[in-house]
Every structure is written in C-alpha cells, then in structure tokens.
C-alpha cells in the first residue's frame, strides 16, 4: 500500500519528534486521521500558536511567552545564584523539586565541535556578560554528567576570571534508595569523587 503525498508528508513531519521512528509516526498519523480528527485540529492549532507565541527569555534563555520569563521577574528569587542548565526540561525538573531559590541560565545544548556547536551557539558570551555585571556571587554548573556536559562545564569555569565568584558543580552519584550493586561504574566514580565529610555531633 502506498500513502498519498499529504499522508507521507504528515508521517515524515511526525518523525521530528524524539524517539519517533517510521512505524510510530505512521501509527500516529493514521490514528489522528482515522479516529481523532477533532483533536488533530486542536493539536495543529496549539502547535502553530506555540511556535508563533513562545520565544526565548532575554535573561535566562528558557522558553517564554514574554520577553523576560516569570522566574527572572520574580523578586523573591536570589539573583546572585545562577544555575546553568542544558535545556528548559532540566529547569522544569529542578523547579519541581522545590529546592532551589536562585535563577537560571539555559544553554540549550552543550559544546560539540563535531556538530559545529560553539560557545556563541549556547549563549556563553551572554552568560559571561551577566557575570561581569557584578550581581552573581555563585554559579552552579548543572550540565549533564556526559563527556560533552563535563567539557561544557569546564569551559565555562575556565572563562571566569573574577575571584569573587563561587563556582560549583552539582553532585552526581548514587540515587536515594539505590543499591550499590545496581549502580554503574561511572556513577560510582562520581559518587566517590564527590564524597563529603560527615560532621559528627560530639555533644
């Protein structure tokens, strides 16, 4: 069976989604057209509206419908503590944890010379300019614990010459509730390297 040109176009368009291969895209397209046309229209309208209305925060680069996002305009946040992340999804994860009261800077990727992704593509000059303004006291490098993420964190820290900036890296190690026998070697190595002293109560 050969599909019509418009159906093939829809299937190929759906393949841009992460984790969606040819078969999954085909099932999605056929489902929307066979059984769910009302929701298909709503999906198309919502996607088009989001593409047109959602841009980038001028301060932190996360996705935002306004020039400056709600987090950056929140006066209760500590603007002296900036957490550097690879993506808006990472920002959402930290916000949902409820344990961070500072602000963010979203790189939207990591350094990758092979793919042609350099510092300018990640907004690193903008980050350094923000630091030079003098308000930032701590920079938390929360890029992913991958080779590229580590290289990106190292590059950013090497560019900061001011001694009054505290540069920290989020800990990577054994998850709460995890058992050592099921933890991979790389995670264990990070956990051992990031070990901390236990302060005992001598009272």
- Regions with little confidence, pLDDT below 50 for 5+ residues: none
Order of helical and strand elements: HHHEEHEHEHEHEH
* Shape label: globular
| Range of strand content | 5-15%
Radius of gyration: 22 Å
- Based on the coordinates given, report the CATH architecture of the domain at 78-170: 3-Layer(aba) Sandwich
How many DSSP E strands?
6
Mean pLDDT metric: 89
Which strands sit side by side, in order, in the main sheet? 4-3-5-6
Q: Report the end-to-end length measured between terminal Cα atoms.
A: 79 Å
In words, what does this structure look like?
There is one protein chain. The protein is of the alpha/beta class and about 200 residues long. Among the domains are: about 80-170, Dna Topoisomerase Vi A Subunit, Chain: A, domain 2 (3-Layer(aba) Sandwich); about 170-203, no CATH class. Helices cover about 40% and strands about 10% of the residues. The protein has helices at about 5-15, 20-35, 35-55, 70-75, 90-95, 125-130, 145-160, 185-195, and strands at about 55, 65, 80-85, 100-105, 140, 165-170. It has a four-stranded parallel beta sheet with strand order 4-3-5-6. It has a two-stranded antiparallel ribbon with strand order 1-2. Strand 5, helix 7 and strand 6 form a beta-alpha-beta unit.
Mind sketching the topology for me?
Layout lengths: L4 H10 L7 H13 L2 H17 L1 E2 L6 E2 L5 H4 L4 E8 L2 H10 L4 E5 L17 H9 L5 E4 L5 H13 L6 E4 L15 H9 L10
Parallel strand pairs: 3-4, 3-5, 5-6
Antiparallel strand pairs: 1-2
Helix pairs in contact: 1-2
């Amino acid at each position: 069976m050969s599909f019509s040109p418009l159906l093939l176009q829809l299937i190929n368009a759906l393949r841009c989604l992460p984790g969606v291969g040819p078969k999954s895209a085909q099932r999605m397209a056929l489902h929307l057209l066979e059984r769910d046309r009302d929701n298909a229209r709503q999906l198309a309208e919502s996607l088009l509206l989001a593409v047109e209305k959602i841009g980038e925060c001028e301060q932190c680069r996360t996705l935002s419908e306004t020039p400056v996002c709600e987090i950056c305009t929140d006066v209760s946040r500590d603007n002296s503590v900036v957490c550097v992340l690879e993506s808006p999804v990472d920002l959402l994860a930290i916000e949902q944890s409820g344990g961070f009261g500072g602000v963010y800077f979203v790189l939207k990727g990591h350094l990758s010379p092979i793919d042609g992704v350099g510092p300018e593509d990640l907004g690193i000059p903008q980050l350094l300019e923000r630091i030079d303004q003098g308000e930032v006291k701590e920079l938390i490098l929360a890029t992913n614990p991958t080779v590229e993420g580590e290289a990106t964190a190292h590059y950013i820290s090497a560019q900061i010459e001011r001694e009054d900036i505290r540069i920290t890296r989020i800990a990577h190690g054994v998850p709460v509730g995890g058992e050592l026998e099921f933890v991979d070697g790389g995670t264990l190595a990070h956990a051992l390297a990031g070990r901390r002293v236990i302060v005992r109560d001598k009272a």
